[in-house]
Amino acid sequence: MIQLRSTTKVALIGTGFVGSSYAFSLLNQGVVNELVLIDVNKEKAQGEASDLNHGLPFSSAMKIWAGTYQDCHDADIVVITAGANQAPGETRLDLIDKNIKIFKSIVGEVMASGFDGIFLVATNPVDILSYATWKFSGLPSERVIGSGTILDTARFRYLLGQYFSIDPRNVHAYIIGEHGDTELPVWSHTSIGSRPIQKCIKNKPEMPQELDRLFINVRDAAYQIINRKGATYYGIAMGLVRLTKAILGDENSVLTVSTLLNGYYGLQDIYIGVPAIINRNGIREIVELELAEDEAAKLQHSANVLKQAMQPYF
Ligand code: NAD
Q1: Residue 119 near residue 143 (C-beta atoms within 8 A)
Q2: What number does the ligand 1 atom closest to the CA of 148 have?
Q3: Which alpha helices (H) appear in 113-233, and where do they start and end?
Q4: Which CATH number fits the domain 150-310, given the four candidates 2.60.120.10, 3.30.70.360, 3.90.110.10, 3.40.50.720?
Q5: Relative to the CA of 44, which ligand 1 atom is closest?
Q6: CB 186 within 8 A of CB 268
Q7: Which CATH number is 9-146's, of 3.30.565.10, 3.40.50.720, 3.40.50.10210, 2.60.40.2550?
Q8: Of 26, 166, 189, 240, which is the most buried if we count CB atoms within 10 A?
């Protein structure tokens, strides 16, 4: 007889700034029943588990512990936030060499546990490490998802909301491409409170330039935050929780993630950020936006930069 599991379980690999913020956010939002924390620094994982457990009297029931890779075998989702982060002045692509080695061992250990769920990757450079996770794991690509431009899209919607004095939840806008310096805004599909942005800026000659500056602030947000406080973590942690909920709740939500493109947007064999429909099976479908000519060219450039960076490794 099949034994039905009614629990939902996340295994989190990497309990640094991003991982521990994600764990805290999961606990606050009551998303899963079980959370296992794994880190090469076992003391850190144990410390985080204790600290989080002490919040349980104020939240919904949940089992949280510091574990080992064997605990991944029945996890619904393995979230990877382990690895080096950007030092001031470093780009995300500068991290590839260090983090790809770490990923080979992490993904190998997770798969050796018998894991058969969905990977969610946030470590940078996230597009390339999502591709690496897909290759190293042998899982179907719909079950290996990178956080991609989910955070950049959130930053974009927040700043547009501020600029037009509209709740960011009523701003529809996407950042696509590399989660990094070559990402791009899709102005052709941006709407503010249901009105196309082209209508909002009509007869306002100062606006196009201001909006270009707004995008630069989105693109360079991580550099600005890292210079000020050393790392960024709350925004991405909440983005990862949003993805966890979309998966476990079988939501069919459209979110900008890093996913394998083979033909969509004219791109082949690459993980890159685009909108996709997410549900209990992972990526249900990629949303192919009809891009303006300059947007399509920028996306192609972004893909070329990623391909060049990953070429020595695959
Ligand atoms: P951090 O240094 O605070 O934490 C990294 C953790 O990984 C540490 O606890 C470390 O012990 C652990 N670790 C290292 N090697 C490991 C291994 N082999 N196995 C298990 N654990 C290991 O870094 P952070 O600020 O939490 O950032 C983590 C990653 O997330 C970085 O690559 C960073 O660039 C990335 N990040 C991504 C986004 C995004 O939008 N995708 C946003 C912010 C940060």
Answers
A1: yes
A2: 41
A3: 126-137, 150-164, 197-200, 207-219, 221-229
A4: 3.90.110.10
A5: 9
A6: no
A7: 3.40.50.720
A8: 240
Q: What is the pLDDT of residues 42-64, one digit of tens each?
A: 999 999 999 999 999 999 999 99
Active site residue 301: no
Ligand 1 atom 11: the closest Cα is on which residue?
41
Catalytic residue among 54, 179, 189, 301: 179
Distance 293 CA to ligand 1 centre (A): 36
Burial (Cβ within 10 Å: 0-12, 13-18, ≥19) of residue 109: middle
Q: Which residues line ligand 1 (CB under 6 A)?
A: 13-19, 39-41, 44, 81-86, 95, 102, 105-106, 122-124, 126, 147, 151, 179, 231-233, 236
Q: Tens digits of per-residue pLDDT, 99-137? A: 999 999 999 999 999 999 999 999 999 999 999 999 999
What tens digit of pLDDT does each residue of 2-46 get? 555 678 999 999 999 999 999 999 999 999 999 999 999 999 999
pTM: 0.96
